[in-house]
Amino acid sequence: MKIEDFPSHIIEEIKNTWETWNLPRLSLNSLHLDEIEEMNLDNSQEG
Fold first, then answer.
1. Angstrom distance (rounded) from CA 38 to CA 32
2. Domain locations in the chain?
3. How does DSSP classify residue 6?
4. CA distance 4 to 28
5. d(CA 37, CA 42)
6. How far apart are CA 44 and CA 47, in angstroms?
7. C-alpha atoms less than 13 angstroms from C-alpha of 12 in its C-beta half-sphere
8. CA–CA distance from 44 to each of 5, 31, 32, 34 (Å)?
9. Helix (H, G, I), strand (E, B) or coil at 10
10. pLDDT per position in the chain (47 positions), as tens?
């Protein structure tokens, strides 16, 4: 299977993910942890 065979939105998502993971300027771990904490807060407030 070639990458051209995937739907364009899948290719775009892969490209965005790749770019995000390859940005040395950002502290991706802390950003990711902040997002997880925020999701956990949202879930605990709903439940």
1. 10
2. 3-39
3. S
4. 29
5. 9
6. 5
7. 3
8. 41, 20, 18, 15
9. helix
10. 787 788 999 989 988 888 877 776 655 555 566 666 776 777 777 75
